[in-house]
Design goal:
The protein has two helices and five strands. The chain is an alpha+beta fold. The longest helix is centred in the middle third of the chain and has 17 residues. The chain is globular and about 35 Å long.
C-alpha cells in the first residue's frame, strides 16, 4: 500500500468568503495533478501519495505566488509521524 501524506495549506492575503485568484488557482494547480482538495474557510487540504507530494506542494506554492499571494503556509503530515512544516514567505 502506498504511503500518503495530508497536505494542508493556508494562502494569504485572506478575505473571508472571497477567495481570490491566488487561492483559487493554487487549488486548481493541486487538482490538475490529481489531488482532491477539501476547500475550507481558513485553509485547504488534500491527501496525496508520497511520490507526488512534492510536485503538488510546489504547484500550490508556485500558483499562489504567481497570482498575488503574500504568504503561503504548507504542512505535510503522515499519520503516526512527526509533522513536517514547509513555510514560504
Amino acid at each position: 500500500m502506498p504511503t500518503v501524506l495530508t497536505l494542508e495549506f493556508t494562502i494569504e492575503p485572506f478575505v473571508e468568503g472571497q477567495p481570490g485568484p491566488h487561492v483559487l488557482r493554487a487549488v486548481a494547480a493541486a487538482e490538475a495533478l490529481g489531488a482532491r482538495v477539501d476547500f475550507g474557510p481558513f485553509g485547504s487540504s488534500c491527501t496525496v501519495s508520497v511520490e507526488v507530494a512534492a510536485q503538488v506542494a510546489g504547484a500550490v506554492i508556485s500558483a499562489a505566488f504567481a497570482n498575488g499571494a503574500t504568504h503561503v503556509l504548507l504542512t505535510a503530515d503522515r499519520d503516526g509521524d512527526e509533522v513536517v512544516h514547509v513555510a514560504s514567505t
